[in-house]
Amino acid sequence: MLLSLGAMSCAQAEPASANPISAELDRRAQALAQQLRCLVCQNQTIADSHAPLAMDLKARLREQLQAGRKDEEIIHYMTERYGDFVLYKPPLQANTWLLWAGPALLMAAALAGLVLNLRRLARQPDEAFEAAPEEEGDIR
Question: In terms of C-beta density within 10 A (0-12 exposed, 13-18 middle, 19 or more buried), how is residue 94 classed?
């Protein structure tokens, strides 16, 4: 009985990735999952998401890896099926330039609005601004 328990514990102690091929597939699957966006969460990679669609995409990714597809082929398959949006870092193209330039354009517009507003206020005479009303009982 002890012998069988010892054999069972040894069998369970062996890691699932002891096979070098399986370890390599796991590493590639994790690297690819970090590059793909969860289409449900949109702010997470499929590696970080627990949404059912992300789990399905990870399963498809693993199936394609086991079928012998290259990483580039898998990325191409995912972008063909879901568009560039599935990429966590979309490429700089004519149809995605606004994604990349948008934050800088918004910041420039906000700064320009602030500068224009401050210049307008600086040109106004002091009389244009109301003095703070004195409160009753204000001792100076």
Answer: exposed
Separation CA 61–CA 69 (nearest Å): 10
CA dihedral 59, 62, 64, 70 (to 10 degrees): 140
pLDDT in tens, 34-52: 999 998 887 889 999 999 9
Q: Which two tokens stand for residue 130?
A: 């109301």
Tokens of 110: 């906000």
> How many CB atoms are located within 10 Å of the residue 41 CB?
15
Q: Which residues have CB under 8 Å from 65's CB, separation 6+?
A: 25, 28, 29, 32, 74
pLDDT in tens, 80-136: 998 888 888 877 777 777 777 888 999 999 999 999 999 998 888 877 777 767 665
Closest alpha carbon to 48 in 65, 75, 30, 71: 30
Structure tokens belonging to residue 76: 């191409």
